Write the structure tokens for this entry.
Amino acid sequence: MKTSSSPLSTDPRALIDAAPLSRFQWQTLVLCFFVTLFDGFDTQAIAYTGPAIASAFHLGPSELTPLIVAGTVGMALGAMGLGSLGDRIGRRPTILLAVLVFGIFSLVTAFARSPTEILLARFFTGLGMGGAIPALLSLVSELSPARHRGLAITGVLLGLPAGAIGGGLLGARLLSHIGWEGIFMIGGILPLVSLLILYARLPESPFFLAVQDLPRHRKKITALLRKILPAVEETALHTTSFPVTRETIHASFRTLVSHQFLHNTLAVWITYFCNWAAWFMLLLWLPTVLKTAGLPPEQAALGTVVINSPAILFCLVMAYYLPKKPVRQLLTAILILGIATACGLGLANSLAESIHWPLVFFLIGVAGVGIGLPQIALNYVVIEAYPTELRATGAGWAIGMGRTGSIVGAALGGWCLKVGGVAGFYYALIVPLLLAIVGVLMIRTKN
């Protein structure tokens, strides 16, 4: 049944917010989920293949560190560079370019024959992986109704831990059969195959097209709105009006640090940097830490599965509460849980004469909630903090700061393990988590 015609001044945002999710919107969310799924797989590939690569090339923790850090450096640069590109050339072409880049260079990694070649391949893989998420978050937020936006963003981002879990399971089961090279071949082939579907089906954001304010975009915008809002009358689609402010807001770094956005920009950057430093330090070094503590490499790879699995359940729970509860309170409580878990892991490894592995793996699962979940909430905050014209740039720089933190965390992980041992490694996570709480308390929110 068709809805009544909307007034000439109706904002398409209001129409999307009032309508149920259409088949076209669901299709877009599924496509975006698969992008994050492959992104998560390739991001974590170096973690569960790290021990095998170290054995193959006779590398110690300090020599393995550059290979782990290379990907995170690429992610940071990709997030900041391609994030801004998403506000300039569009969400769709940026996502397609990012998937092409990380697919090709993941495949290249499989054929590397020296640590230097792996380092270069991981850097360029990281460029693509880092660049995909900012544009993808902007597209999802702009195509989702307000009442479902938090759940849509969270659901799509669940592809990151899901991809990591899939990779961990493959690593545990197949690593001894196909080697570390086979893992990277899978991580390259799947995104490249999916690129054909993305090219055919992934849409552009009508709000981005409206911001460009070009006459040729009017037909594209109407065609997109017809798919998004199949129940709205044709005349309403032709007479909708996009309120844009492109004369005063420009997608640039200068705008992000202008008086209007500076306070929250700095607060978000601090939180991203510190939280991601702790998260990636734990995530990328966890299989090596568990192996150092006495687990066989195949079982150590399961640490990646255990730490990511609880995130899937609790991300959905948090997505439900995000629109209903003060974000700062949620983030602070979750980070405090992360600190308590880091203390528990340190104690479990420093006081027990023989490690009680069920307790350790339980605490690792809790760490996935206390240290990993804040990233999802922050993505929700960032999307809500910036207008359409600045959204991909804001998300890109925030994620770029997080990726920069992950570089620091990944680089320090090997040093902390070498100097402090397994227990010292876990205790070191407390410092960035405390600083992340400081950043959270600085964020100004409406609730």
